[in-house]
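[agent] plan:
  1. take the single chain provided in the ticket
  2. run structure prediction with default settings
  3. attach structure tokens to the ticket
  4. add a short note for the reviewer (M.T.)
[agent] executing step 1
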Amino acid sequence: MRKVDRNRATHQLARRTYSLTPKRGPVLLLGGIAAACAISAMAAAGFALTSSREHSRQVDAICAPPPSEQALRDELTRAQLAFDHEAATRAALQKQAEDTTAELSRLRTDLAFLKRQRDKTD
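[agent] step 2 finished; step 3 output follows
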């Protein structure tokens, strides 16, 4: 067997152990993880912003300053006027219903009288 020169480059290449290396480097893997973290952080920030807006609306409704006395008086006056208008409308409708009932009763009486008159003539 021939003696091989151990210092030659071809000998070193042939005798070296090789292992599989990933096609994508660790930088790409770390970049993907960083992108996923950024997306999840943005989603969490959006959720926090939405819930913060809802919470601030609720707090604003609770902590709103009380209405002034003049505004309360105006609202009470409007409510009383609306109530008076409704009461007057009901009274007018009730009177109209009573008048209609009386007219109906009178017409029924007349009809009964006319039927008796017709039966007598036949």
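[agent] step 4 note for reviewer: The helical segments are 9-15, 26-62, 69-121.
[agent] ticket updated
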